[in-house]
Amino acid sequence: MNPIYASRRRKNVVIKFLCLCAAAFGVTWLALILFTLFYNGLTGLSLQVFAQDTPPPGSTEGGLRNAIVGSIIMTVIGVGIGAPLGLFAGTYLAEYGKHDKLTSVIRFINDILLSAPSIIIGLFIYGAIVVPMGGFSAFAGCLALAVIVIPVVVRTTEDMLGLVPNPLREAASALGLPRSLVIRRIAYRAARSGLITGVLLATARVAGETAPLLFTALSNQFFSLNLTKTMANLPVTINNFVQSPYAYWKELAWSGALLITLTVLALNIGARILGAERTSK
Amino acid sequence: MAVESDVMEAAGPYDRARALSAFKLGDITFYWITRACAISVLLILGGIIISLIVGAWPAMREYGAAFLWTQRWAPSADPPVLGALGPIYGTLITSVIAMMIAIPVGLGIAVFLTEICPLWLRRPIGLAVELLAGIPSIIYGMWGFFVLGPFLANTFQPFMISIFDGVPVLGAIFAGPPSYLSLFNASLILAIMVLPFITSISVDVFKTVPPVLKEAAYGVGCTTWEVVRNVVIPYTRVGVIGGIMLALGRALGETMAVTFIIGNSFKIQSSIFAPGTTISAAIASEFAESDGLHQSGLILLGLLLFVLTFFVLAAARLMLMRLEKKAGN
């Protein structure tokens, strides 16, 4: 065989092999992380984790009840504030201002906010809410999470509404439906699973956010439902427990990490299944 | 569904004018609600910038531009001396090392997924990579702290140190002693974190290559590698670079994954196995217990980080937009 052919083929095989190695490398990390999480998290996972509050230093009696409840409250309120706002903003971008200057500016800024460092959001809420209100509060944490939710929902809403075929809107308009009802009754309904996907992805994104809560909601050793005071939450509790000298705290941190990861993965997979349903229809 | 019943009642045949005005009012209200929400995105950005500048103002006035090249960070000295050189250096060096690892691997996985992988394996591997992107950063940090750090300190670092011992420049870069907390460990965790971003964007832009182009290249006898090298990459170059910049933006601002494992030392050392700090790690570990000028200095660090990531992300978006336009034509 011509030596040039042989060398080209050899090169091809080598590169293909390297690509295979790269893929194996990527998948291995996922496997390793999940494995250590389950290995360390499952041993400590018991009813006690859900039934008792975080233990004081040195104690081996306690769970994560206050942190779990706090995380759920803050995530729900954060998404509750951020998702409608993002939904409406995305609606404007996709339906009303499709071609004007303002839209392209907002889209650009939104894309930047989408990947802006979350610790900056924490600093922003600290300066804008925590300092004027005179102290750390769970409410400030909720707002920080909402600010992270908004760009995610704006982006998916705009994309999903963009997929709704225009003849559908034209048909509704031709029947005399006003613009706002065309959007709410026709476009939203046609894009429903896509919009829910967006909200699920946003929830997954904020469920494990730590940095913006570090100096907004802080944490709390006790059970509290008061939004104007500090509130325990899983990510910050994990953050504090990992760096502690107590073995039991570290064990709890692993259990908490496992809970967060399972939640986030479940939300991600749920969002993907919803998205897949949409495309297969 | 209160709106529906109102509209239905109003839309009776005898009250056409009222129905139409109800529609009009609803229309205008909805329009302005959505518009206000859209504009609030701009307000958030404005709020971030203003609140950072207001918070950073005392430190800016106190230290001026010297803040950028002072290495000493002594918040409890009297008066406090604050310099950003250490965190800036740490941020840049960890991001650069992370990208050096993540770019070839991420592109490799993308090529594997689009050109080499058998069809039935594509979805599971693609899904695994995307799930890797969904794992919260604190999990990476924790895993780095408990698993990766000790592993690197006990095996990889001594190995590299012994190999490069005595070599002029490399010897200083890979100097000991091995440590759980080091710039290199943080870089590796960062690389694993940004890998999925590079891969998923590259896969997306690789899919924009018209199949006819690739088929033509295969048709004249190109190997897979030659098709990738001479057709796919040139066609998608802008998009791939955009994806890489996006990942760089993430790496620069990543907080929790880095904070645990970098050691939080403001001193600049030549070895990448020595502890260091990044802007975000410094803020995360010191902000809650800071006040006065110290806090203002930390906010100034945050402002620097925001400006840095803003430009990187803006460049990334502009490049991706250019590619979208090309794909649209």
Please tell me about this protein's structure.
The complex is a heterodimer of chains A (281) and B (329). The longest helix of chain A is centred in the first third of the chain and has 42 residues, at 3-44. Chain A has two domains: 3-44; 50-280, MetI-like (MetI-like fold). Chain A is globular. In chain A, helix 3 packs parallel to helix 6 (138-163). The model of chain A has no long low-confidence stretch (mean pLDDT 88). With 281 residues, chain A is mainly alpha-helical. Chain A has twelve helices and no strands. By secondary structure, chain B is an all-alpha fold. Chain B has a single domain, classed as Orthogonal Bundle (MetI-like fold). Chain B has helices spanning 2-10, 16-63, 85-116, 119-134, 137-164, 168-173, 183-206, 211-219, 224-253, 256-262, 279-286, 292-328. Chain B is flat and about 85 Å long. Chain B starts with a helix and ends with a helix. Chains A and B meet through helix 1, helix 3, helix 4, helix 5 and helix 6 of A and helix 2, helix 3, helix 4, helix 5 and helix 7 of B.
Ordered list of secondary-structure elements with their pairings:
The complex is a heterodimer of chains A (about 280) and B (about 325).
Chain A lengths: L2 H42 L2 H5 L13 H32 L4 H14 L3 H16 L4 H26 L2 H9 L4 H12 L1 H16 L3 H4 L19 H9 L4 H34 L1
Helix pairs in contact in A: 1-12, 3-6, 3-9, 4-6, 5-6, 6-9, 7-8, 9-12, 11-12
Chain B lengths: L1 H9 L5 H48 L21 H32 L2 H16 L2 H28 L3 H6 L9 H24 L4 H9 L4 H30 L2 H7 L16 H8 L5 H37 L1
Helix pairs in contact in B: 2-12, 3-7, 3-9, 3-11, 4-7, 5-7, 5-10, 7-9, 7-10, 8-9, 9-12, 10-11, 11-12
Rg of chain A is 24 Å
- Beta-strand content of chain A: under 5%
State the CATH superfamily name of chain B. MetI-like
Number of domains of chain B: 1
Morphology of chain B? flat
- The helix content of chain B is over 70%
**Structural class label of chain B:** mainly alpha
Quaternary organisation of the protein chains? heterodimer
- Mean pLDDT over the full residue set of chain A: 88
Uncertain ranges of chain B: none
Q: Hey, roughly how much beta strand do the residues of chain B contain?
A: under 5%
Q: Distance between termini of chain A?
A: 51 Å
Per CATH, the class of chain B reads Mainly Alpha
